[in-house]
Amino acid sequence: MCIRDRYQRRVHGDKNIKDSMKYSLIILSLYLAVFALASGKTYENTVNQVFEDIVNAQFINNTGATFINIANSRFQNNRDSKYISISNATIVGDQDINCTKLSHVSIDNARNIRINDSSFISVSNFTNYQVFNIERSQFSRGNKGFLDEVSNTYLDNILESKLEHGQNLTIVGFTYGVIKKLKNSQCTGCNSTLIKKSKNSIVSET
Predict the structure, then answer these.
(1) Which residue pairs, CB below 8 angstroms and at least 24 apart, start in 178-185?
(2) What's the rounded Cα separation, in Å, for the pair 97 and 82?
């Protein structure tokens, strides 16, 4: 009987662990896609330029740029820029950016960011942010921001933030924040966080 119990626990596992593995696989596939990028052409130190329909390129230290329909590329240390329809890309160290329709994009160490209508994105080490209409993504180590209409997403170590209309979320660490209208989700480590109108969800502190 004891062996059977151990076997069933091993087969079924904990929901949180399964969700973590699922989203980790999503992010792994994202990074593998980005890792395969070709070097391509480099655009750097431009001001108020529009870049459109470009594949396999690097964009470094540009200010006031508009990036439209860019794929398989890398962005680094750009400022005050707009990203529209970006896929299979990495964004590192950018500031004051507005992003719409990202797909399979990794963002790291960004500040003052706004992301709309995107899926399969990984965002880490970010601050001062606004996120709307996101699905099948992962956010790690973020602070001082707002998330709205987020679904099927993994949130890890979020600080001093507000989340509204979250569905099918796995949250591991949400501190000094506010969560409203959480549905079919699990939140562990929701410390010093105000929870309102939670439905079919498990919320606990550490």
Answers:
(1) 179/203
(2) 6
Query: CA 157, CA 134: separation in Å to the nearest integer?
Result: 18
* Residue with tokens 């860019």, as numbered in its chain: 70
Angle CA 88–86–36, to nearest 5? 15
Angle formed at CA 74 by CA 69 and CA 76, multiple of 5 degrees: 115
Secondary element (H or E) of residue 33: helix 15-35
The Cα-based distances of 185 to 87, 166, 180, 181, 197 in angstroms read 28, 8, 12, 10, 12
On whether the CB atoms of residues 59 and 43 are closer than 8 A, the answer is yes
C-alpha to C-alpha distance for 15 and 169, rounded to whole angstroms: 11
pLDDT tens for each residue of 48-84? 999 999 999 999 999 999 999 999 999 999 999 999 9
How far apart (Å, rounded) are the C-alpha atoms in residues 186 and 13? 15
